[in-house]
């Protein structure tokens, strides 16, 4: 075959090769019709809202793009409504077991499920609230460790390592110095994030906090123990307990956070979740 003909053949084959889905960078962050952003008067207008859509950049993920797009949409849900259901550490334990019982895949970044429907309304609390992914919940505990920016992620189009472009990762517990496996995670999305919600402000909090937001099942990770991972994501046996899966009691999260309030008292016993008189919103009232 002549060189020119060979070159034309190679170019033709390149043209036939499958191409990755386009990233959602340079698309605006648009919420569903009828959704009211929960931050009210303190809602921000960060630059990421004009450059990264609600599905982030699923094409850059290790999971199939449609699976990651669905998880990113769930991560960016700012539309949960109603009275928040009280959740405790026991609630997170039971949610974990209920999710595992559905047979849903989870445990690593390429084990994100294609269908998230089984995660909705799958557990009834002791107060009779049916909860699951997308439910509005409230949790009272301590902020422990160091709140930090989560780093480049598909959900935020992996734009940069700047704080403004990343989720804020919060670790919560019911004691001030828990073991990592007795903690849960809450995250503040950068989208519409109030300007007063800064890492500096979060790191200054020493009193108990009341955190309100939606329940989210982070299938990219695994809980402490990792036993169920061997069934749900068997190709990742070697990753159990790895640095890519920081220890946590449950992979259910409060994500995104809709409201964070700081107690005027210093102990959980004096910071009842239903005593509005002891709570002050971080950054002022959201409306």
Shape: globular
CATH architecture: Beta Barrel
- CATH fold topology: OB fold (Dihydrolipoamide Acetyltransferase, E2P)
Cα(first) to Cα(last) distance is 73 Å
Can you give a write-up of this model?
The structure is a single chain. A 5-stranded mixed barrel has the order 4-5-6-8-7. A two-stranded antiparallel ribbon has the order 2-3. The relative contact order is 0.18. It starts with a helix and ends in a 6-residue tail after the last strand. It has one domain: Nucleic acid-binding proteins (OB fold (Dihydrolipoamide Acetyltransferase, E2P)), CATH 2.40.50.140. The chain contains 5 helices and 9 strands. The chain is globular. With 287 residues, the protein is of the alpha+beta class. A hairpin with a 5-residue loop joins strand 2 and strand 3. The N terminus is likely disordered.
Quick recap:
This protein is an alpha+beta fold and 287 residues long. It has one domain (41-281): Nucleic acid-binding proteins (OB fold (Dihydrolipoamide Acetyltransferase, E2P)), CATH 2.40.50. Helix content is 16%, strand content 19%.
Describe how the helices and strands are arranged.
Elements: H1 3-16, H2 65-75, E1 85-86, H3 89-101, E2 123-124, E3 130-131, E4 136-149, E5 168-173, E6 184-188, H4 199-203, E7 209-217, H5 229-232, E8 252-263, E9 279-281
Parallel strand pairs: 1-4, 6-8
Antiparallel strand pairs: 2-3, 4-5, 4-7, 5-6, 7-8, 8-9
């Amino acid at each position: 075959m002549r060189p020119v003909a060979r070159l034309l053949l190679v170019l033709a084959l390149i043209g036939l090769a499958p191409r990755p889905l386009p990233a959602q960078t340079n698309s605006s962050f648009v919420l569903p019709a009828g959704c009211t952003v929960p931050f009210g008067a303190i809602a921000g207008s960060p630059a990421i809202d004009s450059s990264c859509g609600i599905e982030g950049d699923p094409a850059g993920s290790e999971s199939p793009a449609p699976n990651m797009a669905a998880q990113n949409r769930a991560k960016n849900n700012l539309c949960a409504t109603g009275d928040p259901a009280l959740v405790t550490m026991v609630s997170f334990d039971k949610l974990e077991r209920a999710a595992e019982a559905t047979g849903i895949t989870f445990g690593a970044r390429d084990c994100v499920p294609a269908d998230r429907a089984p995660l909705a309304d799958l557990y009834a609390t002791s107060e009779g609230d049916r909860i699951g992914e997308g439910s509005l919940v409230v949790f009272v505990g301590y902020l422990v460790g160091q709140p930090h920016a989560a780093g480049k992620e598909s959900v935020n189009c992996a734009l940069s390592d700047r704080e403004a472009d990343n989720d804020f990762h919060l670790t919560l517990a019911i004691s001030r110095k828990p073991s990592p496996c007795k903690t849960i995670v809450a995250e503040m999305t950068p989208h519409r994030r109030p300007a007063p919600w800064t890492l500096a402000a979060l790191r200054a909090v020493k009193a108990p906090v009341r955190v309100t937001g939606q329940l989210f099942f982070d299938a990219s990770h695994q809980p402490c123990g990792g036993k169920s991972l061997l069934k749900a994501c068997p190709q990742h046996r070697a990753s159990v307990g790895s640095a890519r899966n920081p220890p946590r009691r449950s992979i259910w999260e409060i994500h995104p956070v809709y409201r964070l309030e700081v107690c005027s008292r210093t102990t959980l016993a004096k910071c009842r979740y239903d005593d509005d008189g002891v709570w002050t919103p971080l950054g002022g009232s959201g409306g």
